[in-house]
Amino acid sequence: MNVLIIEDEAVAARQLKAMVERAGDDITVLAVLDSIERSVAYLQQSSTQSGDPNSPIHPDLILLDIELSDGQSFAIFNQVSVTSPIIFTTAYDEFALRAFEVNSVDYLLKPIQETALRKALQKFRQLQQTYGGVTTVTLPIDDLIRQLSERQSPVASFRDRFLVHVGQRLLPIDSSEVAYFYSMNKLTFLKTHTDNQYILNYSLDELEKSLDPRQFYRANRQFIVGHKAVQKLHLYFNSKLKVDLRPTTEEDVLISREKAMAFRQWLGE
Questions:
Q1: Are 255 and 220 in contact (CB under 8 A)?
Q2: What is the pLDDT of residues 138-194, one digit of tens each?
Q3: What is the predicted pLDDT for the residue at 130?
Q4: Do 12 and 138 share a structural domain?
Q5: Of residues 268, 262, 155, the one with CA closest to residue 219
Q6: 7 and 102 fall within a common domain
Q7: Residue 117, domain extent
Q8: Which is nearest to 255 in space by CA: 220, 207, 203?
Q9: Same domain, yes or no: 140 and 209
Q10: What is residue 57's DSSP assignment?
Q11: What is the pLDDT of residue 75?
Q12: What is the 3-state secondary structure (H, E, C) of 91-126?
């Protein structure tokens, strides 16, 4: 199976490539492309109609991010005919992606879990076995663009600042200043990289839904950690991970065995 990955985030692209290659000995990642321009050029050159033996191999399957550095990836379909089946990889929420269910093999929500990726690849294999050969997909691109444009971009919906109380004053805290969030005694706290601490009027569950998953990870019931605050990982009892944070914490920050691999992948493994 020849797979083309279109993803503009370097860390996410490396993680996805590694997961795809681990999913089967018969899988070859043809290329990892980071823009609409490069993707169009590759797909034009790899067209099965070109007849050029030096052309890049046409993909059996494309893993496609929706938001690329030079625009929405739907623009690719306006410039070149794409017959390869597609698995979308995106930060769009599940509600916004219902339109894709009948138009693509599958979609994966970021941060991508390896088990979810394997299920999507298995779904593609089953479609191949059922229908034989390469399964082509026709995408009503105009409809998809319209439906998504009617909804707010998920990137824009992530919180990028917090307003906290300091005595009688209100202080804005940028999300980039946040090391981690934690709960204690039924209160939620924000801890900055400069070791300042503030009380928030949100639960961790509410915060988790509003934070950029590329920057923050729900480690356990008590902590949401920012990737810049993670200093070291330690192997712990029963295949758990112990996380050293900076600023340091009074409580041990433990990652369960079930989440350990996903957490390591989130950090860039």
A1: yes
A2: 444 455 555 554 544 444 468 889 999 888 888 999 999 999 999 999 999 999 999
A3: 66
A4: yes
A5: 262
A6: yes
A7: 2-155
A8: 220
A9: no
A10: P
A11: 85
A12: CCCCCCCHHHCCCCCEEEECCCCHHHHHHHHHHHHH
